[in-house]
Amino acid sequence: MTVEARALAVSLGGKPVLQEVDLALRPGELLGLVGPNGAGKTTLLRLLAGLLPPASGSLRYDGESPRALGRQALARRIAYLAQGGDTAWPLSAEAVVGLGRLPHRRPFAGPSRADQAAIDHALEACDAAPFRDRPLGTLSGGERRRVLLARALAVEAPYLLADEPLAGLDPLHQIEVMELLRRTARRGAGVVVVLHDLTLAARFCDRLALIDRGRLVAEGAPAEVLDDERLAAVFGVTAFRGRHDGEPLLLPWRAYSSG
């Protein structure tokens, strides 16, 4: 499956949020969306998920528009993890993860063996199995994020779009989630993740798309996108660079000063 966005633009509240964005999602790749606060990353992710119609431009899934493909088919092809972890659902963690299987089930049908296997695998992958029976409202913010990520994984869609999945997680689970997303991509899925942590973006992502003030200003390998000039111009920082255990290390270090 291929996902292609061409000249996407959208305005919210009469204000342009994204302008003329071209982007292709590729199977087997971990793509990071990076940029400062308010750059338009979440809006772009919602467009790619088919949750927000563009004001102009086109979005195609295997050459089909979201309308031609249909909501049910799109829900089986695109798994979406929204930003934030608050929910009022009075459901257990396992039941919440089970919601990810709804696109695969017939109306009023119970979970199949395949559904339960997908739920169990997703809970284990996100280190959420120990609290599978607990109501979601009793979990910490980080635990809820892991459950909601498991729900997205349970869809077993060709594409996984995750908006700030590291928010609220401790360092260990941040690394484990990035390793999980990379493994998911290596198994053939296309994974798109919104990140603010440039250190993890540079280390784990195959490709980065840098969004600034609603425009795609750079796209490519992390080392090319996050060069010194763009770090200063877009993020206003300088960085320490190196390698550790054979992997690139980029650490935002101090505020950039032209002087």
UniProtKB/TrEMBL annotation:
Tell me the ranges covered by the ABC transporter domain, including all copies. Answer: 3-238
Which Gene3D superfamilies does this one have?
P-loop containing nucleotide triphosphate hydrolases (3.40.50.300)
Q: Which InterPro entries match?
A: AAA+_ATPase, ABC_transporter-like_ATP-bd, ABC_transporter-like_CS, P-loop_NTPase
Ordered alphabetically, the record's keywords are: ATP-binding, Nucleotide-binding, Translocase, Transport
Superkingdom assignment: Bacteria
Role description: Part of the ABC transporter complex HmuTUV involved in hemin import. Responsible for energy coupling to the transport system.
UniProt lists the family membership as follows: Belongs to the ABC transporter superfamily.
The protein depicted here goes by the name ABC transporter ATP-binding protein
